[in-house]
Amino acid sequence: MRFSNSLIQWYLINKRDLPWRNTTNPYLIWLSEIMLQQTRVAQGTPYFLSFVDAFPTVFDLAKADEEQVLKLWQGLGYYSRARNLHKTAQYVATELNGVFPNNYNDLLGLKGVGEYTAAAIASFSYEEAVPVVDGNVFRVLSRYFDLETDIALASAKKEFAALAFELMPKDNPATFNQAIMEFGALQCVPKSPNCGVCLFNDSCAALQKKKVDQLPVKSKKIKVRNRYFNYLVVSDDNEDTIVQKRTSKGIWQNLYEFPLIETEAVESFDYIVERIEKEFFVNETIENVMEYNEKSIIHKLSHQHLHIKFWKVNIKGIIENGTDAATLRTFPFPIVIHNFIEKE
What we know:
Its cofactor is [4Fe-4S] cluster. Adenine glycosylase active on G-A mispairs. MutY also corrects error-prone DNA synthesis past GO lesions which are due to the oxidatively damaged form of guanine: 7,8-dihydro-8-oxoguanine (8-oxo-dGTP). Keywords: 4Fe-4S, DNA damage, DNA repair, Glycosidase, Hydrolase, Iron, Iron-sulfur, Metal-binding. Pfam families: HHH (PF00633), HhH-GPD (PF00730), NUDIX_4 (PF14815). It catalyses: Hydrolyzes free adenine bases from 7,8-dihydro-8-oxoguanine:adenine mismatched double-stranded DNA, leaving an apurinic site. The protein is α+β, with helices and mostly antiparallel strands and 344 residues long. It has two domains: 2-214, Hypothetical protein, domain 2 (Endonuclease III, domain 1, Orthogonal Bundle); 225-343, Nucleoside Triphosphate Pyrophosphohydrolase (Alpha-Beta Complex). Helices cover 43% and strands 12% of the residues. The protein has 15 helices and seven strands. The strands form two sheets. Strands 1, 4, 5, 6 and 7 form a five-stranded mixed β-sheet that branches. The radius of gyration is 24 Å and the shape is elongated. The N and C termini lie far apart (59 Å).
């Protein structure tokens, strides 16, 4: 009990004032938790506020067009979260009359809601005594109790969840869950934590054994794939351009992009020009082609590094179904393309 009481006392003094902490509304908590998957709080907060402003209720989000949702999400990455968010809002609004499930097991049935998110909503909205286990919780518990379990293993989550449940005051699960995550985010940070000011520096097993920087143990390495994208930024006599929607499964599904040539490596100017002439503008007259960026922009995703070059392609005459500059800015784009458009 000492651990839990000390942790909660620390939290009540040190917690950040975050907009989703001032409510038990499951819609707002669900929205924040989906946004904060793979996203830092500082980055996610403005998006949360924008979404709440645009879609104050689950019915508003359900009625929105997917492109509007993706446009507001632009820059947060992991866009499948936004697509699942929209589908789940539609399901809750139409099938559940706007009422979110009120327990952990039923919350797991929602698209895009996994064990962590279900536990967060169940405890924060409904005070269900179910522990959250995220990276912060793994780190705090593994260090405090000197647990060398490989957190990449599927069995690790059950082990840590059982320990967290044992430590959790069953009459105050929401505060305990918030506290342990906040402690991992602010105090027991991944690299170089300031253990000298930590409230647990007399009882933390990892600190006593000088193992803080070795825990938690995580063995599995992510294999990163390199991909080479060449985007064709077409301009005709009206200065209209061409964009297309990525409809295939994979990164950036349902976002927009310029016509794309994907290659196995960085290719020469002559190679790209030949591909453009053969594959894209057979019936048009290409006036000139030039590189916007001589060096590739490297855009890092979790499992992929994209090496991106933009190529200006001037076409003589008028292209069919061209997109003007004002309309171009209304489409949802991957952030790397959005940033390119904004600079031009």
